[in-house]
Amino acid sequence: MINFLLLILIYTGLYALLALGQNIITGFTGLLSLCAAGFFAIGSYTTAILTVNYGWSFWFTIPLAGVLAALAGALIGLPTLRLKGDYLAIATLGFGEIIRNVILNWDSLTRGPMGINGIPMPTIFGMVINPYRKWGYLTLVWIFVIVFYFLLKRLTRSRMGRALEAIKEDEIAAYSMGINTTKYKVWAFMVGAFVAGCAGSLQAGFTLSVTPNTYTFMVSVMVLCMVVLGGMGNHLAVILGALIIQLAAEFPRLLGLSSTVPPQFKQIVFGLILVIMMIYRPQGIVGRKKVNYDKFVGNETRRVAKKSEVN
After folding, report:
1. Contacts (Cβ under 8 Å, ≥6 apart) of 1
2. For residues 73 and 200, what is the distance between their CA atoms, to the nearest angstrom?
3. Segment 36-52, tens digit of pLDDT
4. Are 138 and 6 in contact (CB under 8 A)?
5. How many C-beta atoms lie closer than 10 Å to residue 135's C-beta?
6. Full domain range(s) for residue 170
7. H-helix or E-strand containing 124?
8. Looking at beta carbons, which pairs linking 180-183 to residues 24 or more positions away fall under 8 Å?
9. Which of 2, 76, 208, 270 has the greatest number of beta carbons closer than 10 A?
10. Is the separation of the CB atoms in 47 and 119 below 8 Å?
11. What are 180-187's contacts with CB under 8 Å, separation 24+?
């Protein structure tokens, strides 16, 4: 039971990274993307190919996996800039399926449906981080979650973060105020894809093998559920959403009912979660704390009035 709980926490960390990246694209910029699984696959296969075929160190493959996924994010971001809502979701869904099918059919590089096995275990300072013992890899994954949490939190409080929020609230108004909406929307895709690519690299190092069937459309739906459930635009909330979704998905196994519950149980749970949240709490469990600009305007007005009285 302890090993199973550790496994859930490890996958919660991996999906929390995916949710943090998705939160930049959907939660802050308002772009309905469904290709997280594609970025995830690029990260995993980058690590698998470079470590197995070329003998690269696992640690060097992580940033490269993120960069390649970010380039894929730019590739999907540029041609879909004019699309919104359902049309953007369909376009990104198609892009994710294209990535999976390329991996599935590029036998000479990815070994097609057979996948890539024998990925070496990560080592640090001569010590092997054995995924089968789980504690070490659990620590590694959650270090990445914490680091990306603070980096993305800092990013969303910067000028870029404010620009992304402005685009989400009213793209036309943002453009009229001088915000380069094209540039920032592409950057949102690239940042979100970079995080997902790093998550994919960590996933490959944990499973020690990769196969195309791991990166299906349902992965993207699950990640979107995590963002919606926790609260769009709230980094801590989407991590909570990742934990809840993982517990819900593995609930039958926790109760020892995996043999009696059909495999489609996950899809039913994710669909119910989305429907219920959209009806009763569209802002998510935690929601998003919005900045009270009226407070700043009021303080500035009082400051100007006081200055006028003094003069």
Report:
1. none
2. 14
3. 999 999 999 999 999 99
4. yes
5. 13
6. 2-310
7. strand 123-124
8. 182/81
9. 76
10. yes
11. 182/81, 184/29, 184/160, 185/29, 185/31, 185/77, 185/81, 186/73, 186/74, 186/77, 186/78, 186/81, 187/160
Structural contact between residues 181 and 171, judged by C-beta atoms closer than 8 angstroms: yes
Residues 6+ apart with CB under 8 A from 8: 246, 247, 250
Which sign, positive or negative, has the C-alpha torsion 292, 297, 303, 305? negative
Q: Give the pLDDT confidence of 210-246 residue by residue, as tens digits.
A: 999 989 888 998 898 899 888 888 899 999 999 988 8
Give Rg (Cα) of the chain.
21
Tokens matching residue 22: 């998705």
**Tokens read off for 74:** 């730019």
Decide if 222 contacts 15 (C-beta within 8 A): yes
CA distance 124 to 62: 14
Q: Which amino acid is at 251?
A: F
Pair of tokens at residue 276: 């219920």
Burial class (CB in 10 A: 0-12, 13-18, 19+), 191: buried
The answer, as to whether pTM is greater than 0.90, is no
| CATH number of the domain to which 290 belongs | 1.10.3470
Say if CB 105 and CB 222 are below 8 A apart: no
Number of domains comprising the chain: 1
